[in-house]
TrEMBL record:
Pfam families: MMPL. SUPFAM superfamilies: Multidrug efflux transporter AcrB transmembrane domain. Residues 253-375 form the SSD domain. The chain crosses the membrane at residues 224-243, 250-274, 280-301, 322-344, 350-376, 408-429, 607-630, 637-657, 663-684, 705-729, 735-764. It comes from Hymenobacter glaciei. This is SSD domain-containing protein.
Length: 780
C-alpha cells in the first residue's frame, strides 16, 4: 500500500465504490419506476369547494344547509344578446331562444331550465290551475302587451330579461357537484346548438361553476407543460453558461426531474389531484431542486481545478457541502411545510407535498448525483485552474466595493427598509370569485356581462328559522322576511332575491286572477289561512322545495348580486348583521348568513392569521436551528437580517403597486423566506469550514465569499429565472407568485452579497473563533 500514490485508490476499493454506485442506481431506478406508476394515476381537477375553510363551523353549517335546500352554485348561466337593431321580443330571436331551451332541457345532468319562453304566470280559476305564458311569439300583435307585463312583473327583469331588452338569460340548474367531464359535455352541447342556430360567439356568454371548472383545468394542463418547458430551457442555458460541460447540464437535470417524479409519485399515492396550487409543484421543484446540485458540482469542479483526483474531489465536496445542503433543505422544506397551517386544502396540499419533494431532492442530490459522478470518467476541464478561478476576479472586486461602501450600504438598506415598512401597511386583503383571471380574460369578460346586464354572479344565501310555535308561512314571519328583502334590495345591493315571501305573493296573485296588484302579502291572518289551504296546489313545483322545507320549519332567502370583492362584501355583511340584530324580532324569526360566497369571504378572516402563523413558525424554526447549531444569538441575527429585509421590501412593493393579499399571494412570504435562507446557510457553513484552517476572520470571509459567491449567484439566477416563467401565466395569482417570489430572491442575493459579509465582520470582528467554538463539531 505504501507505493500507491496519494491521489490513487486501491483497485479493490475503487471496484467496491463502483459496485455501491451501481447498486444505488438500481435501487433509485426501482423507486423511480414505482413513482412513475403513481404519477400516471394523477388527474387534474379544480373543485370550487376545496377553497372553503376546512374545519370551520360555518362550513359544517353550510353543508347541512345544502342538504336541505341544494347547492347555491349548481347552475349555469347562458346569456344571449339579440341581433343588432332588434329587441329580445323579436319573433325570430325568441324561436332561437326556445330551441336552445329545449336543447338544454334534454341534456344530461340538467335538472331544470328557466327561460324567457318557459316562464309563465300561474292563475287559479275555480278548481283549475293554469300557467299563462308571458310571451306569445306567434301573436305579434301582443308583443307590446307582453313586454309591458314582463317589465312590471317583479323578479323577471335582471334575472331573465336585461333592463334594456337587448339580452336574455337561460338559468340552467345542473345536478349537484357536477364534475368536469359531464360539465364539458353540457357546454359542448350548448355551444353546438348555438352554432347550428347561427348565433355568433360575440352574442352569447356563459357563466357558472361548470365554466370556471372547465377553463381552469384546461389551462392548468397547458400552463404546466409551458412552464416546465420554459424552466428546462432556462435552467439548461444557465447550467451550460456556468459549467460549460455536458455533464454539468445533464446530471442536475436528471436529479431534479427525479425529485419531481418522486414528489408527484407521493401525491399520486396519496390520491391527491393536481389543482391550481399543486400545479406549481413541478416548476417550484425544478428551480428550487437545482440549488443543491449547483453547490455540489461547483465545489466538485473547484477541487478538480486545484488538482485533486476525482474521488478526492468528490469526498471533499460531499463532506463540505453535506452539512450546508442538509440544513438548507431543511429550512427550505420548512418554508413549504408551514403552509400546512392554512385552512384552505389546496394550499395545505401544496405545502405538504412540495416540502416532501424538497427533502427528496436533497436525498437524490447526495445519492444519485455522487453515484453518477463516480461512474463517469474524470472530466477534462476547459481551462486549467492551477492559479484560481475565472470568477475570483469579479467576486474579489465586488467584495472590495462592498467593504469600501459599507456605510452607504447600511444607510441605503435602512432607508429602503423604513420606506418598505411604511408602504407595506397599505397592503389590503381582498379577493373576488374570479380573482385568478386577468381583467381582460374572455371568461371574466363573460362574467362581467352578467354583472352589467343582469343580477350578477355572486350568490347570496340567508337561512330563515321561525321561532318555536311558528312556521315559515306564519304572517309575522313573512312580514319580517319581507323587511329583510327590502333592506337587501335597497341598502345591501341584492339585484335578485327569492324567499318564501315570493312563494306566498305568487300564490296570492294566482288566486286573484294573476293581476300584478295582487302580488303582495295577505292583509291579515284570516286571508293567509284561506291562502295556505291552496298552497298544496303549488308545493310540487321545484321553486317551493328550493325555498322552503315541506314542513315549513325553515326557509331560504337566496339571490344574486355583483361580485363586489371581499372588502366591500365584509362591510355589507357587517351592516346586514347590525340590521338583523336591531330591526328584526328574534322572537319571531332567526336568521343565519351562509352560502359559498360567505365561505370564500371568510377565508380572508383566516388569511392574515394563517400567513402570520406560517411566517412566524418559519422564522422560529430557522432561529431554533441556528441556535442549536451555533449556540449564538449573534449568528441568529446574522442569518435572519439578510433574509427578512427582502421580505419586507417586497411587502412594500405590493403596497406601492396595489397588489392585494389573497389566497394565491398569501403563500409568497413563507416560501420566499424558506428558499432565500438557503444561500445564507451555505455561506455560513463554508465560512465555518474555512475558519478551521484560516484564523484571520477577514481573510476567511473573503475566501468564503470567493468560494460561495459563484454558487450563490448561479442558484439565485436559476431561481429568479425559473420563477419568472410564471409571469406567462393567464392566472393572476400564479403571475404574482412568480413576480413577487422572483423579486424577493433577487433582493435576497443582493443582501447576501452585501449585508451578510458586513454583518459577519461587524458582529464577529473581535471574536472570530466564536463561529468555530459554537459549531456543530465542537458541540458534538
Amino acid at each position: 500500500m505504501r507505493g500507491i500514490p496519494r491521489d490513487a485508490s486501491p483497485p479493490l476499493f475503487a471496484m467496491s465504490l463502483r459496485r455501491t454506485a451501481h447498486l444505488a442506481l438500481l435501487v433509485l431506478g426501482l423507486l423511480s419506476a414505482l413513482s412513475a406508476y403513481y404519477v400516471a394515476q394523477l388527474r387534474f381537477n379544480y373543485n370550487f369547494n376545496d377553497f372553503y375553510p376546512a374545519g370551520d363551523p360555518d362550513l359544517d353549517y353550510y353543508q347541512g344547509y345544502t342538504r336541505r335546500f341544494g347547492n347555491d352554485n349548481d347552475y349555469l348561466l347562458l346569456g344571449v344578446e339579440a341581433p343588432t337593431g332588434q329587441t329580445v321580443f323579436a319573433p325570430g330571436f325568441l324561436v332561437r331562444v326556445d330551441s336552445l331551451t329545449q336543447l338544454a332541457r334534454r341534456a344530461p345532468h340538467v335538472v331544470a331550465v328557466t327561460s324567457p319562453t318557459t316562464i309563465s304566470n300561474p292563475v287559479v280559476e275555480g278548481l283549475g290551475f293554469f300557467n299563462l305564458p308571458y310571451l306569445h311569439p306567434a301573436e305579434p300583435a301582443r308583443r307590446t302587451q307582453d313586454s309591458a307585463l314582463i317589465y312590471r312583473t317583479p323578479g323577471l327583469v335582471g334575472n331573465v330579461f336585461s333592463a334594456d331588452a337587448r339580452a336574455v338569460t337561460l338559468v340552467i340548474q345542473t345536478s349537484p357537484d357536477l364534475k368536469k367531464p359531464p360539465g364539458d359535455s353540457l357546454l359542448a352541447t350548448l355551444r353546438g346548438g348555438l352554432a347550428r342556430l347561427h348565433i355568433p360567439e360575440s352574442n352569447f356568454h356563459f357563466a357558472g361553476r361548470a365554466v370556471a371548472q372547465s377553463v381552469f383545468v384546461d389551462r392548468l394542463q397547458w400552463e404546466l407543460a409551458v412552464f416546465m418547458s420554459l424552466s428546462v430551457l432556462l435552467v439548461t442555458g444557465l447550467l451550460w453558461f456556468t459549467f460549460r460541460t455536458w455533464w454539468g447540464v445533464v446530471l442536475p437535470l436528471i436529479v431534479v426531474l427525479g425529485a419531481i417524479l418522486w414528489g408527484l409519485g407521493v401525491m399520486g399515492a396519496c390520491g391527491i389531484s393536481i389543482d391550481l396550487m399543486t400545479a406549481l409543484l413541478p416548476v417550484m421543484m425544478f428551480v428550487v431542486g437545482t440549488s443543491d446540485t449547483v453547490h455540489i458540482i461547483t465545489r466538485y469542479v473547484s477541487e478538480l481545478g486545484y488538482g485533486a483526483s476525482k474521488k478526492d474531489a468528490l469526498r471533499v465536496t460531499l463532506k463540505e457541502s453535506g452539512f450546508g445542503s442538509g440544513l438548507s433543505a431543511l429550512t427550505t422544506s420548512l418554508g413549504f411545510f408551514t403552509l400546512m397551517t392554512s385552512t384552505i386544502r389546496p394550499i395545505y396540499n401544496f405545502g405538504l407535498f412540495t416540502g416532501i419533494a424538497v427533502l427528496l431532492a436533497f436525498v437524490l442530490s447526495f445519492t444519485l448525483l455522487p453515484a453518477l459522478l463516480l461512474l463517469l470518467k474524470k472530466p477534462q476541464l476547459r481551462v486549467p485552474r492551477a492559479q484560481g478561478h475565472s470568477w475570483d476576479g469579479v467576486l474579489g472586486r465586488l467584495f472590495r466595493t462592498v467593504l469600501v461602501r459599507r456605510r452607504l450600504i447600511f444607510v441605503v438598506s435602512g432607508l429602503v427598509l423604513a420606506a418598505s415598512i411604511g408602504l407595506a401597511t397599505r397592503v389590503r386583503i381582498n379577493s373576488a370569485l374570479l380573482d385568478d383571471l386577468s381583467k381582460n380574460d374572455p371568461v371574466r369578460l363573460d362574467f362581467a356581462f352578467f354583472e352589467r346586464q343582469f343580477a350578477g354572479v355572486r350568490p347570496f344565501e340567508l337561512e330563515l328559522k321561525p321561532a318555536a310555535g311558528r312556521d315559515i308561512y306564519d304572517l309575522d314571519v313573512l312580514r319580517q322576511t319581507e323587511r329583510i328583502e327590502t333592506y337587501l334590495r335597497g341598502t345591501y345591493g341584492l339585484r335578485f332575491a327569492a324567499s318564501p315571501v315570493t312563494l306566498v305573493k305568487s300564490v296570492r296573485k294566482a288566486l286573484n286572477g294573476g293581476g300584478l296588484a295582487e302580488y303582495r302579502l295577505p292583509a291579515d291572518a284570516a286571508e293567509l289561512a284561506r291562502l295556505r289551504s291552496k298552497l298544496k296546489l303549488f308545493r310540487k313545483k321545484a321553486e317551493f322545495s328550493a325555498l322552503a322545507l315541506p314542513d315549513g320549519s325553515a326557509g331560504r332567502l337566496t339571490g344574486r348580486m355583483a361580485d363586489v370583492g371581499s372588502i366591500r362584501a365584509d362591510a355589507l355583511n357587517d351592516g346586514l348583521r347590525l340590521y338583523l340584530r336591531s330591526s328584526i324580532d328574534s322572537t319571531v324569526l332567526r336568521t343565519r348568513l351562509t352560502g359559498s360566497s360567505n365561505l370564500i369571504d371568510k377565508n380572508n378572516e383566516n388569511l392574515t392569521l394563517n400567513m402570520i402563523t406560517g411566517m412566524s413558525i418559519d422564522v422560529l424554526m430557522v432561529t431554533l436551528i441556528v441556535l442549536a447549531l451555533f449556540k449564538s444569538l449573534r449568528m441568529t441575527v446574522v442569518v435572519l437580517i439578510p433574509n427578512l429585509v427582502p421580505i419586507l421590501i417586497v411587502a412594500g412593493v405590493m403596497g406601492l403597486v396595489g397588489v392585494s393579499m389573497k389566497v394565491s399571494t398569501s403563500i409568497i412570504f413563507t416560501i420566499a423566506f424558506g428558499i432565500a435562507v438557503d444561500d445564507t446557510i451555505h455561506f455560513i457553513s463554508k465560512l465555518r469550514l474555512t475558519l478551521s484552517h484560516e484564523p484571520n476572520l477577514f481573510k476567511a470571509v473573503k475566501r468564503t465569499y470567493l468560494m460561495a459567491g459563484k454558487a450563490v449567484i448561479v442558484t439565485s439566477l436559476i431561481l429568479v429565472g425559473g420563477f419568472s416563467t410564471l409571469l406567462f401565466s393567464s392566472f393572476d395569482g400564479t403571475f404574482y407568485v412568480g413576480l413577487l417570489i422572483g423579486l424577493t430572491l433577487l433582493f435576497g442575493v443582493v443582501a447576501e452579497l452585501t449585508l451578510l459579509p458586513l454583518l459577519i465582520l461587524f458582529f464577529y470582528k473581535h471574536k472570530p473563533k466564536a463561529i468555530l467554538e459554537h459549531s456543530p463539531e465542537s458541540v458534538s
